[in-house]
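# step 3/5: fold
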Amino acid sequence: MKLIIVAGLAFTTSLLAIDKEPAKRLGEAAAVFSEVMAAPDKGIPQDLLDKSHCIVIVPSLKTAAFVVGGKYGKGYLSCRNKGGEGWSAPATVRIEGGSVGFQIGGETTDLIMLVMSERGADKLLSSKFTLGAEGSVAAGPVGRTATAQTDAQMHAEILSWSRSQGLFAGLALEGATLREDLDDNATLYGKRLENRDIVTNGRPAPRSAAALIALLNKYSARESGKRATEEQ
């Protein structure tokens, strides 16, 4: 009987830990974005962020050199609300496959992607999306005042960056598959909502997403304009 009780408690504890993972990951995503944007000379160019339709943040993407192109991670996507005012509630994504630059052992990498076109945003909100095959992707330029100077960057639907061991750089990420994670959406929203529903139907964001949404709004075009006015 004691063994059954102990086993039951362990199982319950495990379930509670799993339930908390999506909320914890939201905090990690907010931290990644905050740290990247707090480094003006090494961050994402402000003009590209201002023009973007959606953003994807995957903290601690796991890569493995001994598996060809092996990687796996979970993160979130958010898109601008209709009218361009503010950002939507976050929807969950899983990223699998493809290759992530130079891989050493089993390192982890923080990944950020900006979706630069409405067409790219529409594809991203499907249940499954393959980078490179269903939407052009290019390494994003680094530096708050940098501009997308190459032809690939000017016309790419998605720009991507990675941060590993403190180094933040553009990343040519192709072949990776992004899928919506209905189970994690259910944990956050109480229902197995599809990503398109969350992003386009004005779903209220869970409390655990407050920090991330606040940061996205802080660095939006509207807020950057306010900062520029205040500095004059």
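# step 4/5: annotate
Strands lie at 54-64, 70-79, 91-96, 108-115, 128-130, 137-139, 158-164, 167-170, 177-180.
# step 5/5: archive (pending)
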